[in-house]
Design brief:
The chain has 13 helices and 13 strands. By secondary structure, it is an alpha/beta fold. The chain folds into two domains: about 180 residues, Rossmann fold, CATH 3.40.50; about 160 residues, 3-Layer(aba) Sandwich (Rossmann fold), CATH 3.40.50.2000. It has a seven-stranded parallel sheet with strand order 3-2-1-4-5-6-7. Strands 8-9-10 form a three-stranded parallel sheet, with helices on both faces. Strands 11-12-13 form a three-stranded parallel sheet. Helix 6 packs across helix 11. It is globular and about 60 Å long.
């Protein structure tokens, strides 16, 4: 089957480098996995993208990190970028076109009976919500929580395509580093500053990893909290991230928004490290309270501190077992089943 994957134009998808978010890593895994199953995969992504064994089309479009979450977006450049994508696809037929971009023009420019749009984020941007309501394509999302949020926003979601992870490629950590971990964008919705406060309240060192997405937030809320016991490691590639999280006693996810899925939580469980998180969005599906971590009421920091203590006590084998529910093979099976149905109907 000939499959075209259309990436978000927020950041290049370069498997050799750290990614800005979970969606980029998932798209790279999807491209490689489909290729390994015998499909011809083409990736349309920002300039500088590279995924092993995958044809990457360079349309001359540079990454625009301002486009994420509708912040400071240059709508004209978005329209131009996705018009170029639509024109290229019109001249190059595929059995299935699978778009992953969270930009309103993507829905207008990439459309048709063989087109799928996966909504990797909740309905947080009204122009995107309006565009999704009138999309001429199959719509999918990554968790039951996210599907319910889109339904409440008046958007029909046809398919659940949960993210997955290649467990065989991820080494199990020992959790003997004597520290706590935080992984994610340095931004208010992920709230690494709260992780700093919680770690100090518990009395354990904290290691922070992730790209600086919001420089003002990082400078005002995170940087002043760094010190001998709180270390910022920067953005890590996946192997380094797994090693860091694998050595931790627990991973802290004090998120201030409804996580659409929770790839950091899944990667943490995969290396055997329990997760303490606010019970928001897809985290309530990935983390099993009491078995692979602790989920507490949103924004209740004292409860979160108690949750970290509970999480540290769970069995690491149980964490790995819960991660197996989202093995990459299951993700690929679900995508292939939808692709066959879409291509046959088209």
């Amino acid at each position: 089957m000939r499959v075209a994957l259309v990436a978000p134009f927020v950041a290049a998808i370069d498997e050799r480098a750290p990614q800005i978010g979970g969606a980029q890593a998932v798209i790279a895994d999807l491209a490689r996995g489909l290729r390994d199953r015998g499909h011809a995969v083409t990736l349309l992504a920002p300039r500088g993208s590279k995924v092993r064994g995958t044809a990457v089309v360079d349309l001359g479009i540079d990454a625009d990190p301002r486009g994420a979450f509708g912040s400071g977006t240059d709508v004209a450049s978005q329209v131009a970028a996705f018009a170029a994508v639509g024109a290229w696809l019109a001249a190059h037929p595929f059995d299935v076109v699978h778009a992953h971009a969270f930009d309103a023009p993507a829905f207008a420019c990439v459309r048709g009976s063989n087109v799928i749009h996966t909504l990797h984020l909740p309905p947080i941007d009204e122009p995107v919500v309006a565009a999704a309501r009138t999309a001429s394509a199959t719509l999918a999302t990554v968790s039951e929580s996210c599907r319910a949020a889109w339904a409440n926003a008046g958007v029909r979601v046809d398919q659940l395509l949960q993210n997955g992870i290649d467990l065989a490629a991820i080494p199990v950590g020992r959790g003997d580093g004597g520290y706590l971990a935080f992984a994610g964008r340095m931004s208010a919705e992920k709230d690494p500053a709260a992780a700093c406060r919680v770690a100090r309240a518990i009395g354990l060192p904290l290691r922070l990893a992730g790209p600086i997405y919001d420089e003002r937030y990082f400078a005002g809320e995170v940087e002043p909290r760094l010190g001998p016991d709180v270390t910022y490691l920067g953005a890590l590639d996946r192997s380094a991230l797994w090693a860091m999280v694998g050595g931790a006693s627990a991973t802290l996810l004090p998120v201030r928004w409804d996580e659409p899925f929770g790839m950091v939580a899944l990667e943490s469980l995969a290396v055997g490290t329990p997760v303490a998180a606010y019970a928001r969005g897809g985290l309530t599906e990935v983390v099993c309270d009491g078995r692979s971590g602790a989920l507490v009421a949103p924004d209740d920091e004292p409860a979160f501190i108690d949750g970290v203590r509970r999480a540290i006590g769970v069995r690491r084998d149980d964490c790995r077992g819960d991660a197996a529910r989202y093995d990459l093979a299951r993700m690929l099976d679900a995508h292939e089943a939808l692709y066959r149905r879409i291509s046959t109907a088209a």
